[in-house]
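Format notes (please read before filing issues)

Several people have asked whether sequences and structure tokens are stored in separate files. They are not. Every record keeps both together, in the order shown below: the sequence lines, then the token lines. Line labels are part of the format and must not be stripped during preprocessing.
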Amino acid sequence: MESECDNSKIVNNYHVNISNANIQGLNLGNNINSSGSTYNQINTSIEYNDKTFINYLNNIKLRFNNWYQLNEINILENLNPEILNPLEIHYFTNFPKSDFCLTYEEYTLEQLLRSKAKIKVIVGESGIGKSTLLKYLTYKKSVDCLEFSDKKIPIHVHLKNLSFRKTLEKLILSKLEMLEYKINNCSLINLLNKNFFTFILDGYDEFSSDLISLINNEISEICNNFENCNFIISTRKNRIPKIDHGSIYFSEILPLKKEVIEKITEKYLLKNIDFLYHIEHRELEKESSNFLLLLMMISIFKKDEKLPSSISGISFRIFEMIKEREDIKGTKNKIILNWQTIERILSEIGFYIFQKSENLSLDESELKTTLKDILNNLEKEREIQTGIDIYSIIEILLSTGILILENSTFSFWHRLFLN
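Then the structure lines:
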């Protein structure tokens, strides 16, 4: 893919033979640094063997093998997961802020990935498919590395977990350790000096604004000092990265095309013509071009053979379907809390997150404090029995699939439910 404004440099020193990289564990040897950078202290005594490299990639491949599933509990459980290749369903266009200018007004994911920009920022509204796309890219790149058709090791990071204590460097190292990449207490600088990486950062719009300068500097220093690394970042339009680097490209995910919507519905529905008629009749064409909303509508239509008339109606009906699922299960959770109480607790947590937490999540301490206040009020109103264990409540909330736990952080499965 050609670029009208592409001024990125190809560094010949990093065109290494992939077979040698396999034998040496992707060891690049010499340092590339810039004086004055926090990323310029190299410990050359650290070595990485092929087994560590292969173990990590196999774990990444296994972890992201089900990249197309919406979440582990599967809120839309009446939909059997279908593999909808992002290469076939998503199209992109130049985001107005971009300095890199692709010659195409509209292009595919494959064309986007061929851009030489070191930082690719993917912009899109909630539910358009950004997170699923990044999970797919993580999986695909792990497979490519294992097959030696790519030498850049993918590292997927949820930026909503970012804090002053959990910097980008610490999140990266934590992810590597969690997936059995034996870093032996070394710093990120050691890894950057010896390996090729693609850092896949999901949710640039989901952490506190106090941290923007910190993460921008971290990304900038890595890109400016290490030609062997690149970034793929997702965000919404409300927060566009301003990173000090000349090779950055902004691309916007377009709404699903009509023919793509028809292709997706054919995979899930026998009566997809009836479904498409209901979309038109309810004037939901715009909503159906959003990937998540489309799947929600398909799930509702499979059950009801009709559709709500608005986004709020869609979200509410999905919420009701989760309630119906829990009632059918008849679990012992109902002995402690009825669904009306669960709904109220989730609503109050959602309101607290929206009001107090810029990154739209809570750590365990914050959730426990919030729950304590909510439960005290419910006890005073005699809506619940006294002395209920907070951890039991958290377990019940997580069982709904609406509240999720990831890396010790609690958040709503999607912004649509938070709304």
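For reference, the curators noted about this record: The first helix runs from residue 18 to 24. The two ends are 39 Å apart (CA to CA).
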